[in-house]
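Quick one: co-fold with D-glutamic acid.
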Amino acid sequence: MNKPICLFDSGIGGLTVLKKLLEKFPDEDYIYLADLARVPFGDKTKEEINSIVNEIVKWLVKFDPKTIIMACNTSSALVLTEYQNKLNVPIYGMIESCAKEIANSKYKRISVWATNLVANSAAYKKAVQKTNNSLEVEEIACPKLVPMIEDLNYDNDEKENIIREYLEKTSKDSEALILGCTHYPIIQDKLSELTKVHLIDPAVSLINEFSRGVVRNASGGAKPQISLYTTAQADKMRRFANLYLCGDFKVNLISLNTVAV
Ligand code: DGL
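Sure, here it is.
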């Protein structure tokens, strides 16, 4: 039996990673969990993230995954290494593979948009400068973006105003802007209308790394299964998933038996 690839995020953001995985590896089975009961993760403490990830990972390992992907920069920045050390399943995060590619690129100065927790931990800067400490990295916290993207009801002007606010904080001489939160590729088209800076989605590097490391399912067998789960707001998640992944998905509401933090 094929083992699934399990992914998780605080909400709909990780679907941007799932979409890219589906394009590249259409024969895999996928299990996706959104913890919409506790979104956003980016404003929590490290301890809260650790206990949330602990519950999520415990729930996901029951599916006997071939691999787990933290489709979330916030948990990748804070607790990935800990889980890589203690789990028997390979576990991938969003930051390292992108940082490695950027560190070996021609760029001299880049910006990163991210959640409060990721920006405050300087996760991208540290990861890039491990390999290339002459590359300047500025990390900008964009705490209004996840609530805006999750809401689905903001009008065009409201969205543009929020995006412009962060563009104003971004150095004009940055050569590239890393979308350091998996929610941000959802507004990538809007962002491209407002800036000419080169946008980088870390999911692309992650998938390149992943292609080298994971044993893939043989094609031609049974239709791959894509199972979506959420801890709240199942209807919103279903509407968004159907639109974004172009399908007709069922979204299962689950409880991680927890008190919201
Ligand atoms: N999409 C996640 C990330 O990449 C979480 C964002 C949030 O919930 O604040 O960081």
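If it helps, The chain has a mean pLDDT of 95.
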